[in-house]
Amino acid sequence: MDDLAYKTLEDYQRAKEQALTHPSQFWAEIATNFDWHRKWDTILEYDFHKPEVKWFLGGQLNITENCLDRHLKTQPNQTAIIFEPNDPDEVAQHFTYKELHSRVCRTANMLKAHGAKKGDRICIYMPMVPELAIAVLACARIGAIHSVVFAGFSAAALAARINDASCSMLLTADGGYRGSKVTPLKDIADKALKSCSTVRHSIVFKRTGLEVAWNPIDIWWHEAIKDVDDNCPAEVMDSEDPLFILYTSGSTGKPKGMVHSCGGYMVYTAYSFQNVFQYNKGDVYWCTADIGWITGHSYIVYGPLTVGATTLMFEGVPSYPEYDRFWEVCAKHKVNQFYTAPTAIRALQKHPVELVNKHDLSSLKVLGSVGEPINAEAWHWYDDHVGKNNCPIVDTWWQTETGGILITSLAGVTPQKPTYATLPMPGIQAVLLDNEGNELADENEGILAIKYPWPSIARTIWGDHERYKSVYFSAFPGYYFPGDGALRDADGNYRITGRVDDVVIVSGHNLGTAPIENALNEHPNVVESAVVGFPHDIKGNALHAFVIIRGTVEDANTLEAELRALVSKTIGPIAKPDYIQVVSGLPKTRSGKIMRRILRKLAAGEYDQLGDVSTLLNPEVVEEIKQNS
Ligand code: WTA
User: Fold this and answer.
1) What is the DSSP annotation of 526-549?
2) What digits encode the pLDDT tens for the residues 581-621?
3) Which of 57, 211, 458, 569 has a CA-to-CA distance to 256 between 20 and 30 Å?
4) Ligand 1 site residues, Cβ closer than 6 angstroms
């Protein structure tokens, strides 16, 4: 699949040009690199007003044949998955493509033996063990739609997702390891299943040996898989058949089940993986995300496996047993491409750099970042200490909804610029809009939108196409609206400035909370901050800043004055927070995003409207903030 990648800037520019002049033909040419049972009749049908997007119509395929079967011919003994367990003393496992194929087929047969069939929804609530990736692929093998729920979610959150998609089966585990903690997954699943009438079988993988209760619908994985063989022909899927559902949070409480389809998703994840990371045969690639998130779906499982890569799966956390675990694992497995999130980098940056330096990181060739804007300090720390100023950094902007990376540099091929995601991938027509929906030219700042479909755009929200339309296609008719703001420099590089819904209007001035936070973070004692608006009699809205401080605060008044002066200096007096609150933590989602919705309610004193805080990473800080405000 090497020929999917542009190796030079000239190749890249030529592709960009081609994609612009013949957009659908461009994707059709890329799609010919894959194994199809039947070639498509129509490349693309779309109407962003309806909205409707269909790629490779009439085409038939099974994504697992592309991830597995076709590599059996060329590289059966190549390692497909390296599994690095939570506990460094437990031996790592290596699965060749041949072994992975066999395991996926057996697991698919296990699902079939329990009645699973094409179109069924199967919920997967598992820790980061190889069987999670295998389960995902086994569903795809038989055409069942997987819905992976991150194993940190609560029983209520799990139940809501199972019920939304009427899942007929649950795949779970007795428990999961994460650092020094053991999560009782089966126990949580049992609580969830009390309110899920559609689930007929729950297959339980034994990971921790934790004692579990047993119900009539439960079956042990190791028993269920005993009597099945490894011959499981792949179900032939239409290009537009759903491949999976993945839930993402919205501005209302109810999560949105984003639906991705088989053909387009396969083409785009493989194409983007190959290009962004410039993967070479034999390289070891590691994405530290959890398969419970889109990053894990696209860039641990489907993208890497489709191109025949070696992908590392890590069960643990960066701080266990010490804050050097990432670097230890990089050295141990001679990782070549390393892909993580800014929140992890910032957490590790707080610890002595000796923890990085004591490991041999000379295998690293490419570093990646995903999930939020990467601030300059974190970018440079990553570049200096992890990459030794020798590895390109790809800052990849995308979303659960986009299925794959849309704006990024290509490692070593296109120029990088710290804190900028840089350029749209060839085939991605990004634009900046003003509030009225006019396209902005040249160097500018505005609302990011995409004006032409790409193959891996989510096709709908499960069971709620109207919501899909209203969230993504109604604000600016004719465009896909991702909900992010961006600025563009004179060379066309994009810098994502944050969610546009985080804009607060103070005394008639539009203020992005992200730049105010950046200003606060400049203060030597500030570790992290979050700014939200709250209703104000005269100004309409005022600003409340929550700040995490390094060490102890000697004099709160001096600190506040310094912080206000800093904001005033960097942005202007109008942006000075009215209220500054020192906190020990910020409410965050399990994927590390600050839950601004909750901070807004806290700032407004609307404590009775906080909603469900149980799915947070750190629900306890909510109480603390309440007490101290
Ligand atoms: C944000 C994660 C700045 C953005 C793949 C987007 C980013 C949301 C970046 C999607 C980046 C993601 N720079 N912001 N490189 N990558 N975001 O669905 O606000 O978990 O809309 O997908 O994360 O988050 P999601």
Assistant:
1) EEEEEEEEEEETTTEEEEEEEEEE
2) 999 999 998 878 888 889 999 999 999 888 888 888 899 99
3) 57
4) 248, 294-295, 369-373, 395-400, 421, 482-484, 496, 499, 591
